[in-house]
Specification:
Length: 495
Amino acid sequence: MTDFPQTVHFTGTNTPVGIEWSASNLEVTGTIPEEIDGAFFRAVPDPAHAPMFEDEIALSADGMIAKFDIHGGHVDYAIKFVETERYALEKAARKALFGRYRNPYTDDPSVAGKDRTVANTTPVWHAGRLLMTKEDGLGYEIDPETLETLGRFDYYGALKSQTFTAHPRIDPVTGEMFFFGYEAGGLASLDVAYGIADKHGNLVSEQWFKQPYCSTIHDFLITERYAIFPIFPTTADLDRIAAGGPHWAHQQELESWVGIMPRYGKVEEMRWFKGPKGVSAFHFLNAYEEGDFVHLDVCLSDTCAFPFMREAGGVDRAQQDVGGGLTRWSFDMGKPGESFESRVIGPPGDMPRIPDASQGRLHRKGWYLTINPQGGPPVLGGPVGVSFNMLLQIEPSNGRIEALPLGPGMAINEPVHVPSADPEKEGWLLTVVDKQVGENRFDSELWVIDAGAIAAGPVARVAMPMPMRAQVHGWWVSRQQLDQAKARREPAHAA
Ligand code: V55
Ligand code: FE
């Protein structure tokens, strides 16, 4: 009854939904604390059309922007497709016109030169502006109230990079957004653009540098003084792409690198440190400085976490045999040399979170997702193909771990963190939890969790009346931020 391939990319929690809907006053079980007041935006990839090729992957699904609007203990929800150029062209044609993931050589000739991005990875809020981002293109600006797409965002023509990361970093003190784009100069190019937007959302700097090889730079880091670029050996090759092959292949024998430069400095000041061979990471918990040292906490794998990137590189490793752990890399900026220290500080996992106020500073606690060994076979779905089913809290200073394990048939999406006004509290985590109730059928709930007492489980749950597809990343925006942005968009009219 479906044109979609019956692979893990289109079944389980990746079963296409593709419905734009909204509902007010969802049913709340328990009590949502009054101080949770704002919007939880979510990026939900969902393919509007069956793909051109049977081997299409979940990362290519059209971006949907979803919003939980929470106020006074009440919850409204809405979700809409991001109207990218690609989405609009395919919607008009009523079929897929764009071919394989990040491979324009496989497209229908009618869309040659058109914007291929699906804006499906992270909703980014900065300076009152909401962008839906994916690292292969520029972000698309979204109206935070209506979720309508306003258009591709290039800082009014100022940004020269062809790409914009799904993982910019915002300094909580200066309000600046630090970001980058790789393949900035075109498909499989070595060009990386490094940019800074000021607290008003104006582009104030853009510099380009070359990375050692064309790697997927998914995330990067800032501290108070530095910008940090990790280079892992999952690489693009133009000849392979031109032959219709996969964009990425993992090269297990190749070194990794970490580039560290003064965050307000010149890219020529980049210092390159040499890391272990074959490792990779998609996300970092945080980085901070301690004297001359820069510490960064990385969700490290001993290979690449994505099965199709391993396969393309001839790496023969089953998903359950992927090793790794939350790892602290420490760089002594006061000494010359290209080596650094590494130690494992927590279990393997991904989708890390810290309070926004700790960005680039010492983080006392962090949260991330992992696999519960007692949770039964993992639910299939999500970008990697297997879902997480346990939430962890880590205190890096003492290694203490707390866990919220979920039962069989359950999956947990990346949480957002909501700060608390009470200095005794750790704030709140909001996350969508899915429970399998049939083949490719799930009941989903929004969970509100006390971030300082995760093992106690949710303090409130919100049952979702419709099927939900797996989320990638989310972003919390406070009511104050939303109201300020609204006032800027709609200057006060005389009554
Ligand atoms: C990731 C996600 C993407 C992508 C590349 O989480 C990497 C990693 C949802 O799209 O295109
Ligand atoms: Fe990511």
